[in-house]
Amino acid sequence: MKDFATNLLMLHNAEFLDAFKLTVYHIGYVDSRQDADRWIRRAMKFHPLLLDIIVPTSTRQYQLHFPSLASSLCRLKKLFLHGLHLEHSFAKLIRSGCPVLEDLVLWSCRNEFPHIQSDTLKSLVVRGCLSKAAGVLRIKAPALSSLCLDFGLHEYTDGALLEAGHSLVRASVSLMSAVAPQRGATEILVSLVNATSLELCGFHATAVLDKELDELPIFVNLKTLSLDYMFASKCDLKRFKALGLFLQKTPMLEKLTLTNFYVRVLHIFSLLLHVTY
């Protein structure tokens, strides 16, 4: 099968390749990594529209490095990477080597770059990625319309700084980091101000309470809001106050979903009496 795949790519004479999808098992073996690297590099020479590379979580992750390229991927519109090691040069590839890229998915990757910048990117997913390069992920994508950021414990512990322009309409952001309070959490909320649908998870109460009321943005387009493990605080009163202040900034809201919003039951009514909006 290895020889078949190699020969197929070597004998491929078409000018372009529409899609290249590869799932790599047994990545712990040197031969497997070398074969995968050779196949990926060969596929890139045909300027695919779609590039989808997966190293399953059941195998040894991060041992397969995404190749550094001297030339650009001038036709690439969709790039899906799972379980790869992405070096510092990956940021340059996205910024200037993928001039028509629209969809980028990074799942369980090892990111050695500090930022993602693209003028054409419309959809971005960064989920479960580790990084030693920076505690905060900087994103600049003025054409972005859909965003999913899912940072678990010890993953981008300072969150993200986002410049998304006015086109962002759907966003899901989870900041379940070990750092409290989270630096940059309020800035993320500000950058999501034009969204019509938001899913937020793991923000501390300080993201709202550390700001004056008039400093928080008004989500004039927001109609659907889902909050999960939100406004964490040792004080139930602060949790309710943060929720109340945030909802004041959503005048067009039609649907609200609260999940894992825990408070001490005996204090609920007394808290409601003391919360002022």
Automatic annotation (TrEMBL):
Residues 69-149 form the F-box/LRR-repeat protein 15/At3g58940/PEG3-like LRR domain. The lineage of its organism: Eukaryota, Viridiplantae, Streptophyta, Embryophyta, Tracheophyta. Pfam families: LRR_At5g56370 (PF24758). It comes from the Eukaryota. InterPro entries: F-box_SCFL_complex_component, LRR_dom_sf, LRR_FXL15/At3g58940/PEG3-like. This is F-box/LRR-repeat protein 15/At3g58940/PEG3-like LRR domain-containing protein. It comes from Eragrostis curvula (weeping love grass).
